[in-house]
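User: My collaborator sent over this chain with a note saying "see what the structure looks like." That's all I know about it. Can you take a look?
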Amino acid sequence: MKRREFITLLGGAAAWPVAAQAQQLDRMRRIGVLVGTTADDAIGQSRIAAFHQGLQQLGWTADVNVRIDTRWAGVGDAEHYRRYAAEMVALAPDVILASSGAVVGPLRRATRGTPLPIVFTETSDPVGAGFVESLSRPGGNITGFLSPEYSLSAKWLELLKELAPGITVVGVLRDPNIPSGPGQWGAIQSVAPSFGVELRPVNVDDAGEIERTITGFTRGAKGGIIVTASSQTILHRDTIIALAARQKLPAVYFQRVFATGGGLMSYGADTFDAHRRAAGYVDRILKGEKPADLPVQAPTKYELVINLRTAKALGLELPATVLARADEVIE
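Assistant: Without extra context I'll predict from the sequence alone. Here is the result:
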């Protein structure tokens, strides 16, 4: 072989991996999205919109260079979670977004024995659940973004006492059937004696049970409520907000949608921000990185939202110190 021909052949061989990578990036990619709520839920829709926005900022446009298949698995139905997880895996996407900690387990089981990547949001203890080996080195096909630490729950009681110092009984709305339920309850219990309040758990099994319990425990007592993080409390949020208003109960919620919807105050992580950040991990995986090498990340953005209209309706004079700390005040 002549020297010139050899050099030409060698140069072409060196370009093969680059050409192959370019071809891979040019082809239509496929993202699966499994959401642990119903399709008509405004919060779920807003979170997925934030995820789409994050993708678009990174150069991914639906039906142009990426196809996005979304399934809404509902709330609290284990059979639905299993069925939709299996359906999602059967679509053979390049990566799956698990929007809700409730759907991560079913997706993990459905992808067992495969390298199909999963990026989760709002998952409280992925190490304890066996989803990842460690937060810094997930080690498998799963990574993502954490829910706030359980210790945040104690802050809700502190805020409630700042708003209404005279309360003596606090109803804590929780879902004991999810891993974070006992953790949040335990964090609130640990600080209750220092605030001089009696706690009463309110299980959020159904709207009727919530109404009976809240109406009953507030009779003859100066009460307030704390609404902890769960899919069930989101599902029943309109009922909870209406009950708090009717019973004249000061309430602190875990997410801003409760305050914008008429609740008194919310403090928690910005879940829309988590979904935008998840788009970054999906982008990196589509470009060749492995979930095993992408560390699980904690929330970085928290927000305190106060509804002054609701405060006035409850006859509360909010301390200036609390108002000064608010990220948003609804007047």
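A starting point for your reply to your collaborator: Residues 1-24 have pLDDT under 50 and may be disordered.
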